[in-house]
Amino acid sequence: EAQVTQNPRYLITVTGKKLTVTCSQNMNHEYMSWYRQDPGLGLRQIYYSMNVEVTDKGDVPEGYKVSRKEKRNFPLILESPSPNQTSLYFCASMLSTNYRDRDYEQYFGPGTRLTVT
Amino acid sequence: LAKTTQPISMDSYEGQEVNITCSHNNIATNDYITWYQQFPSQGPRFIIQGYKTKVTNEVASLFIPADRKSSTLSLPRVSLSDTAVYYCLVGRMNRDDKIIFGKGTRLHILP
């Protein structure tokens, strides 16, 4: 089954304790992205990756890191989490930014609900 | 990506046709228009995408006038399960483009 998986689904942590949220897709997609969703603010893009070893900042990259060493994986790293990073996080993937049809058909993971106390 | 404007919320009744309009006055020549649906605590799901005129699939129709400065997502005969947030995105990805979802339209279907 084609899918995007995220782990963990729920995480409660304390300020300053480094954490990683994993994201994996099995569709051989080139493009991957991380979003956070907060009440009243909608979905905001954190980082995206056009392909392996290529990453770029989205709208709200501060406090986050990403890496893209393999095509299928795109982990989100919070080196020193703070309470304002409490949010619902979504990973997404898309076939290719050069694909003529369905340029914007992103496939989303189930989400990771993070609480930082 | 071009800035979009959608109604914040809409109510409708089961069995009705629902039309959600998105304004995108600054749409560029190569931009596509894409709509997503999101249920609470789930990731958005692609609904439909179009460039001009009309596109129809098994879920919805997308109407795009000639000037392409707006688009209308049409959901035929809605049911309670269509209650969700609907996002309109406009743009064409390139290396320097971020994706901006905006706040979407919260559609509430009443029995």
How much helical structure, as a percent, in the residues of chain B? under 10%
> Outline of chain A, from the CA principal axes?
globular
Annotation, overall tally of beta strands of chain A: 11
Structural class of chain A: mainly beta
> Low-confidence parts of chain A lasting 5 or more residues at pLDDT below 50?
none
Question: Unreliable runs of chain B, pLDDT <50, ≥5 residues?
Answer: none
Total strand segments of chain B: 9
Largest interface: A-B, 32 and 26 residues
Instruction: Kindly estimate the percentage of residues of chain B that lie in beta strands according to DSSP.
Output: over 45%
**How would you state the average pLDDT of chain B, rounded?**
90
Largest sheet of chain A: 7 strands, mixed
Helices of chain A, by number, come to 0
Strand content of chain A: over 45%
Looking at the structure, what is the overall shape of chain B?
globular
Measured on Cα atoms, how large is the radius of gyration of chain A? Answer: 14 Å
- Spatially, the strands of the biggest sheet of chain B line up as 1-9-8-3-4
Describe this structure as you would to a colleague.
- The complex is a heterodimer of chains A (117) and B (111).
- Chain A is mostly beta strands and 117 residues long.
- Chain A is built from no helices and 11 strands.
- In chain A, strand 4 (31-38) and strand 5 form a beta hairpin.
- Chain B has 111 residues and is mainly beta.
- Chain B is built from no helices and 9 strands.
- Chain B has strands at 9-13, 18-23, 32-38, 45-50, 53-56, 61-64, 70-75, 84-91, 105-110.
- In chain B, the strands form 2 sheets. In chain B, strands 1-9-8-3-4 form a 5-stranded mixed beta sheet, with no helix packed on it. In chain B, strands 2-7-6-5 form a 4-stranded antiparallel beta sheet, with no helix packed on it.
- Chain B starts with 8 loop residues before the first strand and ends with a strand.
- Chain A binds chain B through residues 4, 31, 33, 35, 40-45, 48, 50, 56-59, 88, 90, 92, 94, 97, 102-111, 113, and chain B through 32, 34, 36, 38, 41-46, 49, 87, 89, 91-96, 98-104.
